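Course assignment 3, question 2. Fill in each field.
Student: A.L.
Task: Predict the tertiary structure for the chain below.
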Amino acid sequence: MQKGPLKLSLAIGTTRQARPLRNGQVSVDSIELDIVPNERIYPLFRPMVREQKFDISEMAVVTYIMARDRNKPISLMPALLLAWDSHPHLVHNVAKGKITPANIEGKRVGVRSYSQTTGCWNRGFLQNDFGVDLSKIKWVTFEDAHVAEFRDPPFVERAAEGKVIRDMLLAGELHCAIIAPEPDPRLADVYPPGAGDDWERRNDCHPVNHMMCVRTELLDRHPWLAADLWQLVLKGREAGGLPAGKDRYGIAANYNALALAAKYAHQQGLVSRLYAVEELFHPATLKVFA
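Answer field:
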């Protein structure tokens, strides 16, 4: 029988939901967290996927689905940690002429990694909402996937060592790029105004970027952990001051977004088959939400 709280390492960022966990503001008696120091969370996805280096970690959703497809021993928790409208992240260099989904085929488009979640969302928008043939775009990447087994498709090119995506875009070496949106008169949106709002209305969801994952072995050995960890993240949400009317934690609240992320990942060859949302979760987690 376990004596005292279960000590678990946690790699997590600095969103409103995450900060109360990160700074020890919230707790449950059964879990003692050891916070992994970090300035940026996304570099920690790779060691979590490849080595299961942490017990619990924030995780990009598409990276997780790819890891699930390769039987990595990590399991998703439906704790939403980061979400945004990904449409404004696809921008073009105005000096290269006006670029829209209608003429993006044949263009050079930069993205940090082909498997990046924001990149997957944008390719899904282009393919499903605008009829773009993704293979007719020259995708330019800057790093490998977090999941080591994945190889970029043949229509993907790796930028030269030391190149920076925004600098290449502004220099005209790329027509477009998927980058964090920042005000810049030299750049403009690729999508028409209102595209993100229209997508959300049609799909009744918001694109999901980061959730939480746990080493599967822990859930196998401690089935109670799913429920207790869920109580911990709910406390974090409350302490983060999130409005009660906008609760976006849980499987049902994120079902449509996860189904679309799985669909887009399959369409784009990131995973071998289409995963049902329920397949993304450990049985102990499903039981919490039954």
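Instructor remarks: Residues 146 and 253 are 27 Å apart (CA to CA). The chain is about 30% helix and 20% strand.
Grade: pending
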